[in-house]
Amino acid sequence: MENTLKTLSGVNNPKTGKSLTEENRWVNAEAKESGEIVITYKRDGISPQEKREIEDQIIEKLSDKYDSDKILVKTVSNTTETQGEAQAEAPKPTAAHASLKVGHGVNGNKKRIPGVGKVIAVSSCKGGVGKSTVAVNLALTLKRLGKKVGLLDADIYGPSLPMLLNKKGAKPEATPEKKIKPLEAYGMKFISFGLFINDNDPVIWRGPMLGGVLNQFFFDTDWGDLDYLVIDLPPGTGDTQLSLVQNTEVDGVVVVSTPQSVAVADTIKGLRMFQQVNTPIIGMVENMAYFSPEGKEEKYYIFGKDGVKNVAKDLEVDFLGSIPLEMVMREGGDSGRPYMVDDSYKDNEAFASYMDIAGKVAKMYESKGFLGKLFK
Ligand SMILES: Nc1ncnc2c1ncn2[C@@H]1O[C@H](COP(=O)(O)OP(=O)(O)O)[C@@H](O)[C@H]1O
Ligand SMILES: [Mg+2]
Fewer Cβ atoms within 10 Å of its own Cβ: the N or the C terminal residue of the chain? Predict the structure, then answer.
């Protein structure tokens, strides 16, 4: 620890030009049995861009002793990591159904999903902000960028992928190995709790069972080879989120909000939960950012302006972009033919935003700096 920190003594905070040692930012340097080294420092006041520069410096300084993919850089913050409380939703009465097994709930053995490259969760604090819409269109945009993409609907209380992907009523088959065979829609594999229940069934599911269902979606589903698995989460920080991070390696979280519903306290709580369990936040997306009448330049900031951008800045997470309100986005959702499926809307602003956001996400995983390392 001491030696490693000595090696790192020349690492500078790009903002102040002073070393992290001088600024008393080092928290820990821990060599793991697996051969990895985990470096932790205090990130207060440091921007995401500067964080990346610091990570690069750390990796460079340690490159004599460690392979770059063995170096994991973590940060802690006085403002966002003290006494955070991850809360669980109260268990609800059960209405069991379908060929899903229930009851082998959260076990806490974190595993990667075989064959799946990066697991990206799309999260929000509130419902109705466009999380599912963003999950589906982000997945489709990653596919446009040449990636193999799957979608997992983890919103067990209000699954929406069957509708968004025009597969309502379809039933997944079992493979000869008795795994769940995901459905295919628009060139992507997907699975949803909605495929196992009837439309009018009450979706009341006990927290402990929920983990079991999710585990089957992760590990008993034949995902094949994927570059990305995008997970559509229910809103908030409840059982699903906990079960997700306890059982699976999540490589990053995209947080969606409208400028209005950025109830800052809620957003901080949601982010904090993921940070507490060391799940990297990829960044925030501002959905329903504004509305422009067709053929007009002016923008109407119906839900307020820059709400998400400002919170991202306060929380020191990346701002990934703004998606405007477009009628065809809603229509695409309702009709089961998502916005980003083809080039129909390629001259629209939301289309450009999706391309930009997905490009940023893919680049993060492919870059060799901070995020590339963190999300190895
Ligand atoms: N940018 C947008 N422009 C127009 N409608 C949108 C946009 N984003 C989401 N919607 C619509 O808003 C509603 C809620 O979106 P949804 O993705 O279901 O939210 P959530 O998953 O957060 O509950 C849906 O009808 C969807 O089509
Ligand atoms: Mg949803």
Answer: N
